[in-house]
């Protein structure tokens, strides 16, 4: 009889591990534990179509809830794992129960990073990570008009776009000198800043947050320079942190993520990890990386399942990401860190172009705006020396 595989984390990565194990012929017990009271669901639409009300919970499911029973995957929702007892190979749950494992997979994902300022606990100060978060934000938006978003990254700008579609006044406060600075070039940052400003969003760059103000409920955001912005609702969108505390408490190696090898194995040969919570060495980039993306969750989940099934795996992907804001789709292939040259093809004014990032003449990443063909070709040609015909016209 095959060993029991227990997966902690019922998000994209955890669900993929379970599904891939079954597809690979694993017929032992598979248990999938999630903290939320739902079957595994997609998170990217939360800040877009789900917040806007264009899709309901049924449109989020990765698989219909009945799929897990049909595949003999024991889905255990609304359950918190409190401790890993590596010696006994068992999990201690928050309700006091224990669950044994032969192989353990940690797919614990990330949590919203907290903002270390006064007032973050006021009513009406929110983060966006779960269905429950969006339900609360929707409720808070009813009858309220002034939204301040702290953070000009993907989530902050996606919510800004939705809030403007709902007719809300929106101000984005960004500590950096441009939006999405961590992931895109100045050309893309400038494009999105103009896009949002043209839609009526106020963007304050080079602006820190001193405090969030209010008496019980939020009423404003005090920013650097002494100004206080009026606010009925405040979204804190300053990035995410890996949920590594469970692994760290168990003595597993962590470093802003659970350290795994190319097969997704930790330094315990019975424990694996997959998805946003992991850090692994990439030969492609010559350093360790932690990726927060659907692509990584799916592909690393598959790699972990293959490893458990006894296959040799060396996971080192070409990452890709996307963001939908208004009627504009940004698609990113590769990681642009370290580029020394850019080439812009197409027309930002016509909302259809791409930016190619080169390092020593070699294509390392491409950001495509409403240019899906360039994105797909980039995923095939990254790593090649630049030629004018390497990618198509935008």
Indicate the mean pLDDT: 96
CATH superfamily of the largest domain: FAD/NAD(P)-binding domain
How far is it from the N-terminal to the C-terminal residue, by CA?
55 Å
Helix amount: 10-25%
Overall structural class, as computed from helix and strand content, comes to alpha/beta
What is the CATH C-level name of the largest domain? Alpha Beta
Query: Count of DSSP E strands?
Result: 26
Characterize the structure shown.
It is a single chain. The protein is α/β, with parallel strands linked by helices and 394 residues long. The protein has 3 domains: 5-111 and 241-308, FAD/NAD(P)-binding domain, CATH 3.50.50; 114-238, FAD/NAD(P)-binding domain; 327-381, Enolase-like, domain 1, CATH 3.30.390.30. Helices cover 22% and strands 30% of the residues. It is built from 9 helices and 26 strands. Strands 3-2-1-7-19 form a 5-stranded parallel β-sheet. It has a 5-stranded parallel β-sheet with strand order 9-16-10-11-12. Helix 1 packs parallel to helix 8. The longest helix is centred in the last third of the chain and has 15 residues, at 294-308. It starts with a strand and ends in a 13-residue tail after the last helix. The mean pLDDT is 96.
């Amino acid at each position: 009889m095959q060993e029991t595989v227990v997966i902690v984390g019922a998000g994209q990565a955890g669900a993929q591990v379970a599904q891939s194990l079954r597809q690979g012929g694993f017929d032992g017990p598979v248990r999938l534990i999630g903290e939320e009271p739902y079957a595994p669901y997609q998170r990217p639409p939360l800040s877009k179509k789900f917040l806007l009300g264009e899709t309901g919970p049924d449109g989020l499911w990765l698989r219909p809830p009945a799929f897990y029973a049909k595949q003999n995957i024991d889905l255990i929702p609304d359950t918190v794992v409190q401790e890993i007892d590596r010696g006994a190979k068992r999990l201690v749950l928050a309700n006091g129960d224990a669950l044994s494992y032969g192989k353990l997979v940690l797919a614990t994902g990330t949590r919203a990073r907290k903002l270390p300022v006064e007032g973050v606990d006021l009513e009406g100060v929110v983060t966006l990570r779960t269905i429950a978060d969006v339900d609360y934000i929707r409720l808070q938006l009813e009858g309220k008009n002034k939204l301040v978003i702290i953070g000009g990254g993907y989530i902050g700008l996606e919510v800004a776009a939705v809030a403007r579609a709902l007719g809300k006044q929106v101000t984005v406060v960004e500590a950096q000198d441009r939006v999405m600075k961590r992931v895109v070039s100045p050309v893309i940052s400038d494009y999105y800043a103009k896009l949002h400003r043209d839609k009526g969003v106020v963007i304050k760059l080079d602006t820190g947050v001193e405090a969030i103000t209010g008496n019980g409920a939020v009423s404003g955001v005090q920013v650097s320079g002494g100004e206080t912005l009026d606010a009925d609702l405040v979204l804190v969108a300053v990035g995410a942190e890996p949920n590594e505390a469970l692994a760290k408490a168990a003595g597993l190696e962590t470093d802003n993520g659970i350290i795994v090898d190319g097969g997704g194995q930790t330094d315990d040969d019975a424990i694996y990890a997959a998805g946003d919570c992991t850090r692994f060495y990439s030969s492609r980039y010559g350093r360790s990386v932690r990726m927060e993306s659907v692509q990584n969750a799916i592909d690393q989940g598959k790699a972990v399942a293959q490893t458990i099934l006894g296959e040799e795996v060396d996971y080192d992907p070409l990452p890709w990401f996307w963001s939908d804001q208004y009627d504009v789709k940004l698609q990113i292939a590769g990681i642009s860190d370290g580029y020394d040259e850019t080439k812009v093809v197409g027309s930002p004014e016509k909302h259809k172009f791409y930016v190619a990032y080169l390092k020593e003449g070699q294509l390392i990443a491409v950001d495509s705006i409403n240019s899906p063909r360039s994105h797909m070709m980039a995923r095939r040609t990254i790593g090649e020396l630049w030629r004018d015909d390497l990618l198509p016209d935008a």
